[in-house]
Input
Amino acid sequence: MDTLQKKNNLFIPFIVAVIGSALMILTIFLPYTSATKEFAERIDSAPEVLAYSNTDIKAGDVKNVSMVQYASMYSSNSKEILHQSSVGTIYVVIVVGIGIFSLLSLIFALLKKPIPLIISDVLAFGVFTFLGWDFRDRGLMRSAYNWGIGYYLFYIGIVMALVGAVLLIMAKKKVKKQLQEN
Output
């Protein structure tokens, strides 16, 4: 088996894994939550009103909020929003964890290392799931918000990255088997 054919066998799984991992990173900056239609209309009617007393966060700033924006808001205003100054740090760590594990997924996808890719995907998924559980547990998702596009695209990204990793394993085994036969 020549090198070109080996590369061709790995190309599609590689692309699927890279796109999925890159999508996971992108979702950190896309809206994680979006205001419900009714809440969005209220925000649009008074976007300059403060969303939280004793903060500089305006209602217009919380219509569509990414994970990075949540971490930023909670870290700088956690005492006012969450009633504890140390809780904001936890959100920063959670979002940074999602970002680091997603970045590791991309690196392992680029290096065509499927096992570390799967491990980093599972870790990113675990932290991401914990963040979603926290939002639901605090009642944020029942009241004024729905999940944003970033929330759903993360699931698509993780599935793509995992499928790409599994396909990489299968393609590498196939190449190895064909090399042994020759």
User: Anything to note?
Assistant: Helices lie at 3-27, 37-45, 67-82, 87-110, 114-137, 149-181. The mean pLDDT is 88.
